[in-house]
Amino acid sequence: MECPHLSSSVCIAPDSAKFPNGSPSSWCCSVCRSNKSPWVCLTCSSVHCGSYRCDDFVINDTKLGLVQKVREHLQNLENSAFTADRHRKRKLLENSSLNSKLLKVNGSTTAICATGLRNLGNTCFMNAILQSLSNIEQFCCYFKALPAVELRNGKTAGRRTYHTRSQGDSNVSLVEEFRKTLCALWQGSQTAFSPESLFYVVWKIMPNFRGYQQQDAHEFMRYLLDHLHLELQGGFNGISRSSILQENSTLSASNKCCINGASTVVTAIFGGILQNEVNCLICGTESRKFDPFLDLSLDIPSQFRNKRSKNQENGPVCSLRDCLRSFTDLEELDETELYMCHKCKKKQKSTKKFWIQKLPKVLCLHLKRFHWTAYLRNKVDTYVEFPLRGLDMKCYLLEPENSGPENCLYDLAAVVVHHGSGVGSGHYTAYATHEGRWFHFNDSTVTLTDEDTVVKAKAYILFYVERQAKAGSDKL
């Protein structure tokens, strides 16, 4: 091969024994900057790509086209190596997935029925929430028991369709795709399930989550529960949601909490009621308001924000009880939150206090780890200690004497964890308990874990399930 800068010269390819201009990985064409098929001149050390895309490089091939044959041979070798490496990695991944599905119990090996969720492109925020909800038994069983809905007919019936964002939204059902996703989990028939149909519906009805950028798992959970609630209110497959609720005797009328209209399984399980008390500091007028909630967002007290690990020695460890106390303690509102006193007829300084008027069957606690400072949204990386069993909520109730001792105790069902430094980056995983065993859900990978590992996690969202009366009364 002839160098374009010299009338007569010799060039070598990357497979040659000597590299006069550094290692082959550092070679790139001096004209088009490509690092594919580089050739270096032994006389002037110029590097060119050896392709016809680079107009500055001249190739003097033989009459039999030997240079072209060499290039094609090198390309085939490169493609073969890439394909072999890809098959090897896939085989290792499949073997590791199969091995992780096996568990030794009492000396015998049994299969783990847990199924992972494939990451569709920064969708770990969705996967972590779905895995957590799938392990809240009463909530999950309700959706799995719903009748299936055939959303397609005619020529497309029974066929797999690939959706695009340009398609209409008249024929989508969040409830149906959520039901199918939950049914696919814990069957043990596959190591990972791809929730692309559910994600397609999310794109259609939740524009905030379109695209493949990282999203906030808590925000997604709220949107998901709200839209499930709204769709169930409108009926499902010709069956009113009230008749479906009545079929489940455990979701009695006394357990229902209405948010945005009639009650559904969402509000029956996650719904609670807060009492908001505001007192004017000038005239003493008290104002009370009852607010329904699906979850409680708790601040991490500022005095604990430098405590990043459980074993760190600088000061006491922040506990979930500290966060709950901060949420319910009497607070004086600052100048930007002046209360409009109806007696004083103007905005006045005031105090505010929250009481829990009604506890939900599943208590969802969101730790506010992301906050705005100037133009940045920073993460509070403080470790917060939380109990696995016996979270006692009685002291936060408005009328604790009207609640039985067992009704105020909660046991942990699932934890969502954010790994990384910012809400728009990082990675979400989840821990959840199923049939007495703890699992770690990391997208398509599901592994067994233990309680010691779970309690060390820096929780972002905690799901606590109301303890049944037959359980013990140990408190933590």
Helical proportion? 25-40%
Q: Which consecutive residue ranges, at least 5 long each, have pLDDT under 50?
A: 15-21, 52-58, 103-110, 152-169, 237-256
How many strands?
25
> What portion of the residues fall into strands of 2 or more residues?
15-25%
Number of helices: 10
Describe this structure in words.
By secondary structure, this protein is an alpha+beta fold. Strands 10, 16, 20, 21, 22, 23, 24 and 25 form an 8-stranded mixed sheet that branches. Strands 9-8-15-12 form a 4-stranded antiparallel sheet, with no helix packed on it. It has 10 helices and 25 strands. The protein has helices at 66-100, 124-134, 137-144, 174-184, 196-205, 217-233, 241-247, 265-270, 320-328, 451-455, and strands at 11-12, 39-41, 47-48, 102-105, 108-111, 116-117, 192-193, 272-280, 286-293, 296-298, 318-319, 331-332, 339-341, 346-348, 350-358, 362-367, 370-373, 376-379, 384-385, 391-392, 409-419, 427-434, 437-442, 445-449, 459-466. Helix 2 (124-134) packs across helix 6 (217-233) and helix 4 (174-184) packs antiparallel against helix 5. It is elongated, with a radius of gyration of 30 Å. It is 25% helix and 24% strand. Residues 1-140 form the UBP-type domain.
